[in-house]
Structures are given as C-alpha cells and as structure tokens.
Design brief:
Helix content of chain A: 40-55%
Distance between the termini of chain B: 45 Å
Number of helices of chain A: 22
Mean pLDDT of chain B: 84
Number of strands of chain A: 20
Structural class of chain A: alpha/beta
Low-confidence stretches of chain A: none
Oligomer: heterodimer
Bound molecules: adenosine-5'-triphosphate, magnesium ion
Shape of chain B: elongated
Largest interface: A-B, 40 and 38 residues
Largest sheet of chain A: 6 strands, mixed
Number of helices of chain B: 4
C-alpha cells in the first residue's frame, strides 16, 4: 500500500465497513474539504478495482482512560470503477484544489481540498495514475517524508524551505556558535568584563560619597573629615574621572571586538553563499538577501557593542544598589521596590506600542523609497506616458503618510515616556515621604545624609529599568538575526560536487539527455521525459513556444539545477559526476537575460577568464560582432557600463555577452535567444562567425526565429516540457508537423512583405 | 503547438443570450457557443476565470475550454439572464472560494512568522503565515487578505466592519 497521508487508527474500521482490508488498498490519501466546499475529512482509497471517495469527519470520542478513541463518521461515499477512470488531475484555485478525472468518458469531479492537502493529493494522483494506467511508478522516498512539522513539538514549520521551529529554537546554541568567532579575543573580553565590573562598582560608590559621606561626615562637626571640603570634592571628581576613563576604554575595546567578530561572520556567510545553488536563491529573492545579511550583522554588532555591555553593567549595578539599600534600611528598601513590577509592566506595554509605531513608520519610509526609485528607474515610461503629475501625487501621498507616522512616533515618545517617568516618581515619592518621616522621627537610625544616599541608590536602580525592559526585544531581534545568518552558512547546497569528481581532460563535447524530468515546484513537471543527443562538434536547435521549457533544458545542462529523473551525459559521463571546474570551463552559455556588471566592457567580457589578454578580448569581440560598435565609443573597451553608466542597446548587450562566452572558448556553447534583439543582418553575420569557429564545438541554439537556426545539424521541437518532434530541417518539413506549421507561418510573413526564399 | 488563427487571438468575443447557452452538466458548466463568424460548438466543460477578481468578480469572466483557450468573454453575468447568472455565480464562487475571517482571536508573532487563530465562516481555523508583511495584502480600500504557508487565502471582507479587538491585532500589517 502506498500511504500518502498517514492512516489514522480510525481508518481501519472504516475500510472494514467497506469490506476492505489494508492489503487491498493500493494508494491512500486524505483531503480536508468536501465537494460542496465545507470542512470535512475525505479519504481517497484506490484499490485494484475501484476508487472510493469517502466523505465524513473524524471525531474524538472522548472515552476516559482510552487514548485513541477517534472515530470516522461517514456521511457519503462515491465509488468509481477503475477501468472507466482516466486522466486524474488536480486543478488549483486560490485557496482550494479540485481532483477531477474523466469517468466513463465524461468530466467528473472527484474530491475537493484546501491548499493544505494539495501536496498529498498531488502525490496521490502521481501513484494512482500509474496504477490506473498499469504503469510501474518508482517510489520516491521524498514523497513520504513529511517534513513540514517540527519533530519536537509537532507544530508546523512556518517556512517550508527553512526547517526551523521558532518554538524549539535553542538560543544558547546560537550564542555558543557566535563565540567561536570571538575565539581570538578571549583576553579582550575578560578585560571588558573586568572594566564593566569596575565601572559598576565605582557607580555604586559614587552616590555614597556625594551624599551620606558628604552630609553626615564632611558637613557635620565631630568627624575626622569635618570641613575638608576641597578633599571631598576632589575625591568625588576622581571617582567620576576613573569611572569615565574605564567606561571609555572598555567601550573602545568592545567596539573593536564586535566589529571584527561581525566581520568574520559576514565573510563566513558570503563565502557560504557562493556554494549555494540556484534554488536557494529563487526561494529567497537575492536582492533582499544581501540587504538582510547586512542588516542582520549590524543588528548583532550593535547588540554586542552596546547592548550586552550595558546589560551586564546595569545588572551588576542594580544588584549592588539593591543589596546596599536592604543593608541600609529594610522597610524603606521594600517601599522602593514595591512599584517596580507595576513600572516594568507599564514600560513593557509602552515599548510594544512603540515598536508597532516604529515598524509602521519604517514601512512608510520604505514605501516612499520604493515609489521614488520606481519612478526614477522608470522615468522613461513616466515621461513617455506623461504621468509626471500622477507620480508626483503618488509620491506626495506616500510622503504625507510617512510624515504622519513619524509624527505619531514623536507624539508617543513625548507623552508616553513622561507618563512612565511619573510612575518612577511615584516610587521616589513613597521613599521621600516614608524616609522623611523616618529621618524626622529618627526611626531606624535614619539621618538626612543617609536618606539622600538611599534616594540616590533607588535612582541608580530605577534608571536602567527603561533599558532593561527593552532589552528583551533587542535580544530577540539579535537571536533572530543570528539564526538567519547561521542558517545561510549551514544551508546544504542541493547541487553539490561529488567527493571524487570525474576529471575530463580534453572534453570532446558529446551531449546526451536521457529521459530527463524536472520540476521547479513539486508536482508541476516543467521537463518530462526529454531525450536527445548531440554529437561532439555538431549543433542542435531547440524550438518551442514561450514557456515550453527551453531555457530550463539549458539550466539543467549547466547543472544550475539538479535533474529529478533520468540523466544528462557529457562524453558519456553524468554531469552529476563531473567536477565543477570541468563543467564550468567547458560549458558556456549566453543566456536569455543578458547580465552586465558595473565595470568596463573589457572587464565584462573577461569575466569568465580573467587572465585573458587584451588581444583575446578583441578577438572574441570581433567574432561576436561587438568590436565594431565598441571601437566607436570614445573610451573603447574601457567604457564603463552597467547600472548608472553608459546604456547599451539590447543587441549590443547581447553581443558583449556572446563575446564573454566565446572568450571562455567552451567545448559546449549554449545560445539561448542570444541574437534575438539584433537585426537579421547582424544576426546572420554573427551566426556565420560562430559557425566558423564551431567546427570543433558542440552548439545548442535556442531560438524563436527559425532563420536563426538555418545552419544547425538537427532540431528538436518541445512543447509543454516534452519533445514532440525531432530531426533535420528537411525531415521536419516533410513530416508536416508543428515545425512545418511554424516554418510556414514565418515564411508567409516574409512573403507578405515580398521576400521569397 | 496548436494552430491558432490570428483573429482567434486578437478578437474579443462576448457571450450574449443569443449566441451562448450555459448549462449545468455533471457538476460542471457546459457551453454551446455560436460565434458570429463560425459554427456552433458544444463544450462539455468550460472553466470560468475572473479577469478582475478583486474589483469586478461578476464581470469580465473568461470562458476557457479544456485546453485553456478562451472561447469567449462574459462582460457581466447579469446580461445572460437570471438563471444563467446564478449558475455562473455559483460556479465562480466555488472556484474562487477563500476563507473568510469574521474575527481574529489571536496573532502571535515569533521570529518574523506569525501564528493566527481566527474565526472563519465555518468555525475556528488556525494557520501559520510566513513573512507576514508580504503575505498580508490590502485589496482595495476596505478589504484585506492574508495568505498562509500552504497558499490558502483568508479574506477580511470589510476592515471597517471588524471589531476593535481584532483590528488591534492586525493593525501593524495594514
Ligand atoms: N525559477 C523558476 N521557478 C519556477 N518556475 C519557473 C522558473 N523558471 C521558469 N519557470 C517556469 O517553467 C516553465 C518553463 O520556463 P522556461 O524558461 O524553460 O521557458 P522557455 O521555453 O525558455 O520560454 P521562453 O521562450 O519564453 O524563454 C515556465 O512555465 C516558467 O514559468
Ligand atoms: Mg527561455
């Protein structure tokens, strides 16, 4: 039995009710919605003879003492005979999916599901279809590895791509890992810690000297310090200076250490990124990724540079202040702390509100920036459609929103925090009045100076409260950032070089696709059973509709993605076994989206082979038909191109890309619509040049314009991920299939304007 | 590659009570359609696709055949008579079914993710949202929707109609 969804204990009796044993079931899955769109539990049961769709719901029959008292109460059951059931299919809508089929020649709806069950039903369809068609489908273990749930707490992973459960994350581990980066700085860290203790101690002594000592010893007759004002003042000054000096010193050290730790961290992350495969990036949007890494490391930097030392110092100081206060006067100390919980509670609420406001104003400012860069990047379109006024209005709207949100932050800061301070003053008030009464009546040996000292200590305790309460969210943000960073450095690349890769010295360039299957998203086959081969030095053209999967084939050959079924062989060696070095050096691509980096044209061409001489660069550009336009530029090969510099035309960019690929001088060259943006004459010229050099090179050309493919040795036509036709141009014309239709269409178009071949 | 005539691609064909008959057949909608320049044809099963699902759910429906080629457009279901309109509405409502949020019981933020517990049309539902800012989307002035990790969409039909406590929980995302 293929058990796609977990079969609960309640299912076995249900099957028995239908006269089935577990062994009779071929494929089993469950969905969570009835055909009428209501919530339900639905079993899909495929047996040798028929498909049962049993609708009902699972109830917990809570009998005390018995654990698994789950019961399936059935409301309806439909049965479909296997021999009449064909074309199982899942149709996907916004929040729901529908399992449909043709039954007895007519379209039929079998079951419904929410997107939550979609995955299971897709897998069900895969195996059930094979069963119905009498095919043997290979069991793919991944289909049954339901790793959407945290194994520890059973909660859903919030991000299917990241197997991290926020509830079970171990924070201490994160910090331990971070300290590995701080290895060489142990002594500095000890110094920082020592300095922090020292400043805390000085901070605790200072109030004593400036209050009790001053009032009760220096100002009161009969003490050894009586009247020694200057010395007392100097003592206070010395204390302050010491504390300031030590504080500054430790600040400098901790800034240094944090900076180099985050630097090391960043280096680790960026080098990890280079190893990662395409699918990692497409799941995460690369642009945001770099930004995120920077923000996250800054977050960590500030936490360790400012947050952690402050935390340590304050905790020591508060603890010391508390101890001293309790030693000085227990009842009064109790009075001072009584308000603390209330205060912490209020401040906590205030901060959460403040974070909301901050987040909102941050979002408005991002929206404003987005609008601005949108309008600037698209200024041609804006001008062409004369939408300047509307763009300005949009901008005004956004900036007004930002102003409003910033205002509410300011207003909040200016009202809420005084309110919080009021509570703090309340605590002072209590201490003042109780302590004042004690001093006046002389209860518990209270003196005026001692009261002043006491008040100073309670201030010492209260001051950092604001910060401490906020520390929790700061801490969370920091662990969050660390988690994300480590996750990147830990990510296992899914396209990985084998341990002992095959080295191909002198690659010939035989390419063979054997029954290749691939999908970007599970269940949606983009490439399905594609087989073809190109001999070394030969050329192959690939044609097909937009979205047919042509570029995907190129990606697979480059091993940017891993094939799921079948294999791709180069010189008889599976690309999975080839060393990356050999693969990258011998397979070159001019991709559909030309990408030019910021830099000179020469740098861009030299990208694949930095050691190429200027002569090589010129030779490659000549072949690519780029030389002519480059020499006309005032700065020639040293013209800066890329974002923010000279704009090249679409065709010019393509020619630079082609030159880049030619310079690499690969054994296998893939041209994906590489000449689509050029006029036919230029294309012709380049194509001839390429043919000239492609005698000992395997060339794979993807093109919509059939004239581009005039000189290729053979052609494949692909449609919806499958090869529908293949052969030479003449064979395909004779076959009068899709290629012929396409050819005729393009020829007609030429005839219409008076060109005949 | 199926052959398509240019005029099939560029011409707008509208369904009218005269040229189109929609019927229910085995739970699906079937269509008999006679284009002005062609022959009458019956499609056992057509799909209805909203062109503007947010702003005009009952207007501009694409009627697609089993290969997803557009047979015709419906400008407004009302134009086709009450009975047909009801059929088409029922069909699209089912296809475009989304969960409705009546009340928000809790939203817990944790490390950038959020765990939601809401009262939906059919009882309490719990779901997890990844990158909440991106997956919470306003649809027009007063509607909003949030999409969970599986891709299920939960819609708030009227933000102003939401109670104050619920509103407070999602304020941050609006
Ligand atoms: N990174 C991706 N993630 C998910 N789906 C993708 C991705 N890249 C392409 N697709 C989908 O895969 C299918 C095939 O895409 P592909 O780029 O191979 O088409 P193509 O034949 O090169 O089309 P064109 O002629 O327009 O370049 C398309 O439906 C596309 O939407
Ligand atoms: Mg492409």
């Amino acid at each position: 039995m293929i058990e796609v969804s977990k079969m609960g204990s309640e299912i076995v009796p249900l099957l028995q009710d239908h006269g089935l044993r577990c062994e009779d079931v071929a494929v089993f899955a469950m969905t969570d919605m009835a055909l009428d769109g209501t919530r339900a539990d639905v079993c899909l049961v495929l047996t040798e003879k028929e498909l049962l769709v049993i609708t009902g719901y699972v109830r917990d029959e809570g009998r005390p003492g018995k654990k698994h008292a789950r019961v399936f109460s059935e409301t309806s059951c439909e049965t479909y005979g296997s021999e009449k059931l064909k074309e199982l299919k899942v149709e996907e809508y916004i929040s729901t999916g529908w399992l449909t089929a043709t039954f007895d020649g007519e379209p039929t709806e079998l079951a419904a599901m929410t997107k939550t069950s979609l995955r299971d039903v897709r897998i069900f369809v895969k195996y059930a279809s094979a069963k119905l068609e009498g095919r043997e489908e290979e069991i793919d273990e991944n289909d049954f590895k339901d790793d959407r749930f945290c194994p520890k707490c059973g909660r859903r992973y919030p991000d299917p791509e990241r197997k991290i459960c926020p509830h079970c994350m171990e924070k201490s581990k994160l910090f331990k890992r971070l300290f590995v980066f701080a290895k060489g700085y142990r002594r500095y860290m000890a110094a920082i810690l020592f300095a922090l203790c020292l400043t805390a101690a000085l901070g605790v002594i200072a109030p004593y000297v400036s209050t009790e000592f001053f009032y009760d010893k220096v100002l009161r007759a009969g003490n050894s310090w009586y009247g020694r004002l200057l010395e007392a003042a100097l003592l206070v000054l010395l204390l302050r200076l010491c504390s300031m000096g030590i504080g500054t010193l430790s600040g400098i050290i901790s800034a240094r250490v944090s900076a180099s730790v985050t630097y090391k961290l960043k280096i680790t992350i960026f080098s990890a990124i280079e190893r990662l495969s395409m699918s990692f990036f497409s799941a995460r949007q690369t642009g945001g990724l770099m930004n995120q890494i920077n923000n996250d490391s800054n977050e960590i930097y500030w936490f360790f540079c400012m947050g952690a030392p402050e935390l340590i110092r304050n905790v020591i100081q508060i603890a010391a202040a508390l101890v001293i206060m309790f030693i000085m006067n227990v009842p009064l100390a109790l009075c001072a702390v009584v308000v603390v919980p209330l205060f912490a509670f209020v401040v906590n609420r205030l901060f959460s509100r403040m974070h909301t406001l901050h987040a909102r104003s941050y979002r408005s400012s991002r929206a404003l920036n987005a609008t601005l860069s949108d309008a600037l990047a698209g200024f041609r379109v804006v001008k062409a459609f004369s939408r300047e006024k509307e763009e300005t209005a949009r901008f005004n709207d956004r900036s007004e929103r930002l102003a409003r949100d910033s205002r509410s932050v300011t207003v909040f800061n200016n009202t809420a925090f005084p309110a919080a301070s009021f509570i703090m003053n309340l605590s002072n008030l209590i201490v003042w009045s109780v302590g004042g009464w004690m001093a006046v009546t002389g209860t518990g040996g209270m003196t005026y100076g001692r009261l002043m000292a006491f008040i100073a200590y309670s201030a010492l305790m209260n001051q950092p409260m604001f910060m401490l309460v906020d520390m929790a969210s700061w801490f969370t943000a920091c662990t969050n950032a660390m988690q994300r960073l480590f996750e990147i450095s830990d990510a296992e690349p899914d396209v990985r070089e084998r341990e002992d890769p095959v080295k191909l010295d002198g690659m010939r360039g035989d390419v063979e696709f054997k029954n290749v299957g691939f999908s970007y998203e599970k269940g949606k086959k983009v490439i399905d059973g594609v087989s073809f081969s190109v001999g070394a030095g030969r050329s192959l053209g690939i044609v097909g509709h937009s979205g047919a999967g042509k570029s995907t084939l190129a990606n697979l050959l480059m091993r940017l993605y891993e094939v799921e079924e079948g294999e791709i062989l180069i010189d008889g060696v599976n690309v999975k076994d080839l060393s990356f070095d050999d693969l990258r050096r011998n397979v070159g691509i001019v991709s559909q989206e030309t990408y030019l980096f910021v830099g000179t044209i020469a740098d861009n061409i030299r990208y694949a082979r930095p050691d190429a001489t200027d002569e090589d660069v010129i030779a490659a550009s000549k072949l690519a038909g780029a030389h002519d336009f480059i020499v006309k530029l005032p700065d020639g090969y040293e013209t800066m191109i890329g974002f923010g510099h000279k704009d090249l035309s679409g065709g010019e960019r393509q020619r630079v890309s082609i030159a880049r690929a030619i310079l690499l001088n690969p054994k296998i060259l893939i041209l994906d619509e590489a000449t689509a943006a050029m006029d036919t004459a230029t294309e012709r010229m380049i194509s001839e040049a390429l043919t000239d050099i492609s005698k000992d090179r395997t060339t794979i050309m993807i093109a919509h314009r059939l004239s581009t493919l005039r000189d290729v040795d053979s052609l494949v036509v692909i449609d919806k991920g499958k090869i529908v036709e293949s052969g030479t141009h003449d064979e395909l014309i004779r076959a009068k299939g899709q290629y012929f239709d396409l050819y005729k269409l393009q020829l007609d178009a030429l005839r219409n304007i008076g060109i005949t071949e | 590659m199926s052959k398509k005539e240019l005029r099939d691609v560029v011409k707008l064909r509208y369904a009218t009570p005269e040229n189109a008959v929609f019927e229910e057949k085995r739970g699906f909608v079937s269509l008999t359609f006679r284009p002005e320049d062609g022959e009458e044809k019956t499609y056992d099963r057509v799909k209805l696709q909203r062109n503007f699902p947010n702003s005009t759910p009952d207007g501009y429906l694409s009627v697609l055949d089993s290969e997803d080629n557009e047979i015709c457009l419906i400008r407004d279901v009302e134009e086709l008579g009450e009975e047909t309109a009801a059929l088409l509405r029922r069909e699209t409502a089912r296809r475009y079914y989304v969960f409705t949020i009546k009340k928000i019981l809790s939203v817990n933020q944790r490390y950038g993710f959020s765990y939601w517990k809401v009262e939906a049309g059919d009882g309490v539902r719990e779901f997890t949202v990844q990158d909440t800012y991106r997956n919470f989307r306003k649809l027009g002035a007063d509607r909003a929707a949030v999409t969970d990790v599986d891709g299920n969409r939960y819609e708030i039909p009227s933000l102003s109609g939401l109670d104050r406590r619920s509103m407070k929980k999602i304020e941050l995302y609006i």
